């Protein structure tokens, strides 16, 4: 990362090029933002996809004092900062713009499953991300969205762009990763974990939990809250993983928009939360920040469920609302991997609209509570 600093009259212009990689660089940037009490800042993030918590907080304070304009080049970062209530300006990219031919409208050009499959194979060969066994309909919808956004109306041109331009692939990668989540999503599932699974796990001296496809972390922090209230957090190690490295960074930051706080509190109450939801957060004007006590036992890292090899001997695995994007064959592969990653009698929790019926899951798991999609490993 490089920071370019220019001082002009009453303004300091900071341009940050590249990713913020280590705590030293982060410290340097926070220091640069603190150098002047009197001057205003113009901060431009040219390369970064992620901004760590300490910088976000500094930017927020500067903005509150009306001392800072922020510009970002990256769409993903722009959305994240906006979501947290940090106003920023999006520097739009200059795109290769191909006008649709008069007689071929975009809608008329239907993509065939075969050409998409070949395209996905090429993506895997070049970039190492394998989407060939994701649900084809969903992939096709996402590709359509990406083409409209890039204003490329011809699939072959789009294909070439993605395969030869890492930036365009990168945006498509983000389109393919759907990160919808909430605190205590499907509160009945958390009731079951609290009332049935935790009392069982409490007999262990040390507990290991894997939250796979954790997105921006709300699910794993919900879990940490119920563990804390059961006085079990300190003896638990939670692995929280996702294929998307940016959501992992957001999860580590643990900053969330305050706009959903009423819903979060409702969900927490419905999940039989015993205390006050906000006691686990520092509340800011626009966002809430997860307290360190919840983070201590969570290890966040990027990991794809398609990678070979098991992770560890877990007592409980949560993988909710991820299977819906996979075809049945891929679901079976991942179930097999979960089977190998669980200890005897281990629990698996899937999403509300997922299950083990169509993917041969009954070879590895039996139903524990079908309504909430909770299964247990078959001991062979
Ligand atoms: C809809 S979110 C679900 C978040 C959370 N589990 C919940 O239920 O609220 C799906 C997540 O799965 C992740 N995902 C998709 N494919 C994956 C893969 N192959 N390996 C790991 N995570 C994946 C996405 O990046 C996304 O964050």
UniProtKB/TrEMBL annotation:
Q: Which UniProt keywords apply?
A: Methyltransferase, Transferase
Q: Does the keyword Methyltransferase apply?
A: yes
Q: Name one GO biological process term.
A: methylation
What is an example of a GO molecular function annotated in this UniProt entry? S-adenosylmethionine-dependent methyltransferase activity
Cited SUPFAM superfamilies: S-adenosyl-L-methionine-dependent methyltransferases
Residue intervals of the CheR-type methyltransferase domain: 104-380
Top-level lineage group: Bacteria
Question: What InterPro entries does the record point to?
Answer: Bact_Chemotaxis_MeTrfase, CheR_C, CheR_MeTrfase, SAM-dependent_MTases_sf
Q: What's the protein called, per UniProt?
A: Methylase of chemotaxis methyl-accepting protein
């Amino acid at each position: 990362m490089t920071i370019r600093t220019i001082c002009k009259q009453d303004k300091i212009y900071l341009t940050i090029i590249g990713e913020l990689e280590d705590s030293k660089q982060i410290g340097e940037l926070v220091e640069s933002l603190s150098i002047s009490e009197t001057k205003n800042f113009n901060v431009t993030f040219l390369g970064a996809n992620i901004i760590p918590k300490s910088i976000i907080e500094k930017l927020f304070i500067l903005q509150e004092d009306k001392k800072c304009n922020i510009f970002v080049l990256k769409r993903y970062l722009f959305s994240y900062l906006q979501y947290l209530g940090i106003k920023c300006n999006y520097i739009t990219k200059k795109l290769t713009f191909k006008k649709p031919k008069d007689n071929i409208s975009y809608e008329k050009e239907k993509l065939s499953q075969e050409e998409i499959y070949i395209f996905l194979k090429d993506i895997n060969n070049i970039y190492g991300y394998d989407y060939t066994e994701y649900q084809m309909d969903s992939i096709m919808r996402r590709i359509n969205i990406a083409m409209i956004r890039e204003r490329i109306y011809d699939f072959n041109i789009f294909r070439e762009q993605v395969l030869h331009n890492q930036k365009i692939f990168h945006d498509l990668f983000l389109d393919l990763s759907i990160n919808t989540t909430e605190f205590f999503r499907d509160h009945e599932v958390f009731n079951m974990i609290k009332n049935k699974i935790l009392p069982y796990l409490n007999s262990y001296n040390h507990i290991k939990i894997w939250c796979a496809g954790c997105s921006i972390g709300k699910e794993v922090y919900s879990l940490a809250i119920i563990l804390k209230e059961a006085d079990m957090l300190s003896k638990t190690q939670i692995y929280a993983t996702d294929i998307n490295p940016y959501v992992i960074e957001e999860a580590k930051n643990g900053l969330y928009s305050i706009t959903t706080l009423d819903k979060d509190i409702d969900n927490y109450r419905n999940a039989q939360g015993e205390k006050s939801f906000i006691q686990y957060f520092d509340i800011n004007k626009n966002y809430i920040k997860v307290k360190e006590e919840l983070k201590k036992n969570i290890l966040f890292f990027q990991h794809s469920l398609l990678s070979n090899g098991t992770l560890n001997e877990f007592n409980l695995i949560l993988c909710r609302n991820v299977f819906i994007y996979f075809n049945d064959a891929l679901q079976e592969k991942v179930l097999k991997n979960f089977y190998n990653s669980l200890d005897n009698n281990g629990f698996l929790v899937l999403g509300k609209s997922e299950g083990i019926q169509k993917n041969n899951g009954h070879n590895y798991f039996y139903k524990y509570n079908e309504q909430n999609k909770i299964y247990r490993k078959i001991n062979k």
